[in-house]
Amino acid sequence: MEQDPRFVSKLTRNTFALILAGGRGSRLKQLTEWRSKPAVPFGGKFRIIDFPLSNCVNSGIRQVAVVTQYKSHSLIRHVQQGWSFLRAEFGEFVELLPAQQRLKESWYTGTADAVYQNLDIIRRHDPEHILVLAGDHIYKMDYGAMLAYHELKKADMTVACLEVDLERAQAFGVMSADDDGRVVKFSEKPKNPESTPHNPDKALASMGVYIFNAKFLYEQLIKDADCPGSSRDFGHDMIPGMIEKCRVFAYPFRDEKTGEQAYWRDVGTVDSFWESNLELIGVTPELNLYDTDWPIWTYQAQQPPAKFVFDDDDRRGMAVDSMVSGGCIISGSTVKHSLLFSNVTIRSFSHIEHAVILPDVKIGRHCRLTKVIVDRGCHVPDGTVIGEDLEEDAKKYHVSPNGVVLVTAGMLGQELHYVR
Description:
Elements: H1 5-13, E1 15-20, E2 41-42, E3 46-47, H2 50-58, E4 63-68, H3 73-82, E5 93-98, H4 111-116, H5 119-125, E6 129-134, E7 138-139, H6 143-152, E8 157-165, H7 166-169, E9 173-177, E10 183-188, E11 202-213, H8 214-225, H9 234-242, E12 248-252, E13 264-265, H10 270-279, E14 307-309, E15 311-312, E16 315-316, E17 318-320, E18 323-324, E19 329-331, E20 334-336, E21 339-340, E22 345-346, E23 351-357, E24 362-363, E25 368-374, E26 379-380, E27 385-386, H11 390-393, E28 398-399, E29 405-407
Parallel strand pairs: 1-4, 1-6, 4-5, 8-12, 14-19, 17-20, 18-21, 19-22, 20-23, 21-23, 22-24, 23-25, 24-26, 25-27, 25-29
Antiparallel strand pairs: 2-3, 6-11, 7-13, 8-11, 9-10, 9-11, 15-16, 28-29
Helix pairs in contact: 1-6
């Protein structure tokens, strides 16, 4: 069915988006020691939160609130600096909603509770639809198309979904849907996920992207808040309770051009974070950051262009099969199959390979770093070797199950207590 763009634009204009960005992301280990997961840098110049925010703006949804809780200063500062370009005069905004005990004497206890405690703010904007998003996933999605599907199905609630391997499905909300797309079963993080009818190796998993009719959501949140046994969570409590009596539909997340399942990543572990960043340097990566039709917006300080200096046989500044951001200086060293964020300096005679180097890192002379993530602000001393002896590395750094070595300033003995 062809969708009328005007019809979709009317829907998005009357939609209020709520991005849940308060999660700690403990599986990212020390990467979230001083910041929440949505504030973690990604892709050379972005933060994870920039992807759902960009999806909203590109979809025509210009009323957005970001709900924060865990160590949120870095995230709040980034949103203030990078997302203040919307015009309040035209009813456009990105608001920050920190946990503040608005309705009860507790912090947010679950995803549903985070929305419930801000009901007075949401109601003030009087939207027709409410879009609830997780703030910690990497993907590009037109929410307007999902809204049109929601209206077409006359749904009370619509859940965006994708197929995942059964083993991975244990970490998701898993659903079953009938031939019309109506959800008939929903289980949050089941031990034995139910497979899809057409593929016994896959399960239908929730992306954490929900659309509600506004009045319906208000009623359900109040009902859940009055239930003493509820954990105040959409996946554990609210969605399973809605299925029998309400119209809950599954929206398959597909690429508009190919019809295949679209790109989506939960970069929730050290291994997946490293893999997803290095995927971007491929010749034709699944996530195209060079797509001018769907740009990813962010805040970035003004930086000079990347610079590569020295061209001697034993001292050549070069990067191959890599992405190098502004402000970087590669001085007489070699970088291979790596991603360098902004303002990284690498001094002479070093070799960097299969590495994700976050902003403001300084790497000394004669260093060899392989299959590493180096956190922001680290100063790697001259002669440091990481990634060649994992048993030795594990004594000082964090080594992931797949052999990725995470290095932070604290691990290097540097007292770096600033949140960026």
